[in-house]
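Project standup — Tuesday

K.O.: blocked on the structure for the chain from last sprint. Re-posting the sequence here as requested.
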Amino acid sequence: MAILPKIAVIEKPAQKPTCQNLDGDGQSPIITFMATYVLAYAHNALTGAGICV
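H.V.: unblocked you, prediction finished:
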């Protein structure tokens, strides 16, 4: 049995940024990339990639 990493989801109340963001979507590309990577990793880990039962 594999030990799966625990992923905590923490929600914060919406806050206005202290400075104008030039991206327009309110998110940094690095944060978006990391979120995508973590979600893909968690999906593969939780679905048991490569393991047939």
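K.O.: great, moving the ticket to review. The chain has a mean pLDDT of 61. The first helix runs from residue 29 to 47.
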